């Protein structure tokens, strides 16, 4: 993170296109939201990815956070070019409290329940680096896209939306004296499809 950020100065700016610039490691870039200056009003940000066509996801969605992982986040998909949205996966430090859902991990899913929309706490700590629907045996699932209609429908999207609902605070309560510490920053989003 930089010590000073300023959207009006190119060298100090972190605009949204830096989430997709595939820079490798040098120069290192990232998008950064504003800080949570309006607390207690929620700091919520939507990031919408659209392709103007239907795609089938063929690999994990990977979001690399430069900041701490959000305490609350929802990944949503659209099948009608963003007119309507449906949840794809929920992320929270406390699923039961945040979304009234029992926490699960993708390892809890079987071939029969892989289409279940879950809330996971697994990717909602400050120490995790990737988010998204991640299964350890995804290659075999993606290989079944051509033969399993329900699976193909589940991985078909026209748009994806990342709803960042609460930034990482690292604590139970927000410290009003340190609101500039709370923000979202993403260095890379990878979505692979056909």
Question: Would you write up a description of this structure?
Answer:
The structure is a single chain. This protein is mostly beta strands. The protein contains three helices and nine strands. The chain has helices at residues 95-99, 138-142, 149-154; strands spanning 31-32, 45-56, 62-65, 72-78, 86-92, 119-120, 130-131, 156-166, 185-190. The strands form two sheets. A five-stranded mixed β-sheet has the order 2-8-4-5-6. Strands 1-9-3-7 form a four-stranded antiparallel β-sheet, with no helix packed on it. Helix 1 (95-99) links the parallel strand 5 and strand 6 (119-120). The longest helix has 6 residues, at 149-154. The radius of gyration is 17 Å and the shape is globular. The two termini are 34 Å apart. The model is unreliable at 126-138 (pLDDT under 50). It comes from Crotalus adamanteus (Eastern diamondback rattlesnake). InterPro entries: Laminin/Netrin_ECM, Laminin_N. This is NTNG1: Netrin-G1. Residues 1-194 form the Laminin N-terminal domain.
For the structure shown, list the relevant keywords.
single chain; 194 residues; mainly beta; 5-stranded mixed β-sheet; 4-stranded antiparallel β-sheet; 3 helices; 9 strands; disulfide bond; laminin egf-like domain; Laminin/Netrin_ECM; Laminin_N
Strand content: 25-35%
Would you tell me the overall average pLDDT?
77
Elements, N to C (H/E):
EEEEEHEEHHEE
Poorly predicted sequence stretches spanning 5 or more consecutive residues: 126-138
Separation of termini? 34 Å
The level of helicity is under 10%
How many beta-strand elements?
Answer: 9
Per DSSP, the total helix count is: 3
Strand order of the largest sheet: 2-8-4-5-6
InterPro entries: Laminin/Netrin_ECM, Laminin_N
Protein name: NTNG1: Netrin-G1
Domain Laminin N-terminal: 1-194
Keywords: Disulfide bond, Laminin EGF-like domain
